[in-house]
Automatic annotation (TrEMBL):
Pfam families: XdhC_C, XdhC_CoxI. InterPro entries: D-isomer_DH_CS1, MoCofactor_Util/Proc, NAD(P)-bd_dom_sf, Xanthine_DH_XdhC, XdhC_CoxI, XdhC_Rossmann_dom. The gene is xdhC. It comes from Billgrantia montanilacus. It comes from the Bacteria. GO terms for molecular function: oxidoreductase activity, acting on the CH-OH group of donors, NAD or NADP as acceptor. This is Xanthine dehydrogenase accessory protein XdhC. Residues 111-258 form the XdhC Rossmann domain. Residues 17-77 form the XdhC- CoxI domain.
């Protein structure tokens, strides 16, 4: 099987921003003397890949390391990095390069949905316009619709082991549990509570279902504070009597509940520098 074609920096930037994944854009903004690439050369750096080049060598590896260090720390925004080729970079060119690093931590919000049934499918459809990363899990084979593969910021995961799926979630995820099986639901809630670092936990079902779960989760060692963090039932349409209990209505109500929990944490796209910011960055570097 042949290797996939390497992506140019602009292709990679579009894909990573579309999918809400962490990445950095490195741009050579000034150079003096003998340097590997001219001003304007760009490279995109992700957590596990690099797209395009600034010329290679130790200098490029140091740019990659600087970008990944900022990504690992969850930094965002811009910084100007100076490289003397022969000093900091240990290269023999003898030139000098300023590289602008623009750090994009990715989608601030991650929504993990467990269950690809009717309500789960409507949730994914409704969440599509939101700038969230969506991780869609199901333990069954062949349940994800064909259209899901092309949806931005959506990652479909065949998760046969509920505890392993929970262990793989990013810290601070918002989670919704609505599988086809009550035992699987309960195991997922147990695993989510054991992690203790989820931003929110929601469970589909009735008040009687939660009462049963609550009793067994108490026996499993979860205290009142932990149990009180679980929202059940989710969606105003799924509780009470006489409400609209269609999958679309439940999903719509569930997202309406979730929006204030997520808040306004999504980071705005920061590509493009204001001229005053450029002057400030160069002034700081020259001092």
């Amino acid at each position: 099987m042949s290797a996939s074609r390497p992506q140019a920096w602009h292709e990679a930037l579009h894909r990573l921003q579309r999918d809400g994944l962490p990445h950095a854009l490195a741009t050579v903004v000034t150079s003096a003397g003998s340097t590997p690439r001219e001003p304007g050369a760009r490279m995109v750096i992700a957590e596990d890949a690099v797209h395009d080049t600034l010329g290679g060598g130790t200098f490029e590896f140091q740019v990659i390391d600087a970008a990944r260090e900022k990504l690992a720390c969850g930094e965002s925004g811009m910084s100007l990095e100076a490289f003397a080729l022969g000093g900091r970079s240990g290269q023999c060119c003898g030139g000098f390069v300023n590289v602008l690093l623009e750090i994009f931590p990715g989608s601030a919000a991650t929504l993990a949905i467990f269950g690809a049934g009717h309500v789960g499918t409507e949730l994914v459809r409704l969440a599509a316009p939101l700038p969230w990363r969506v991780l869609w899990h199901d333990s069954r084979d062949g349940v994800f619709p064909d259209w899901a593969e092309a949806q931005p910021r959506l990652d479909c995961r065949h998760a046969t082991d509920p505890r392993a799926a929970v262990a793989a979630l990013p810290a601070g995820s918002h989670t919704l549990v609505l599988t086809h099986d009550h035992a699987e639901d309960r195991e997922l809630i147990d695993a989510l509570l054991q992690r203790g670092d989820m931003a929110s936990i929601g469970l589909i079902g009735s008040k009687s279902k939660w009462a049963s779960f609550r009793s067994r989760l108490t026996d499993a060692g979860h205290d009142e504070a932990a149990l009180g963090s679980v929202r059940c039932p989710i969606g105003t349409a799924s509780g009470g009597t006489g409400g609209d209990k269609t999958p679309y209505a439940i999903a719509l109500a569930t997202l309406a509940e979730l929006l204030p929990l997520v808040g306004n944490a999504e980071r705005a796209d920061q590509r493009g520098l204001d001229p005053a910011e450029v002057r400030a960055l160069f002034g700081q570097n020259a001092s």
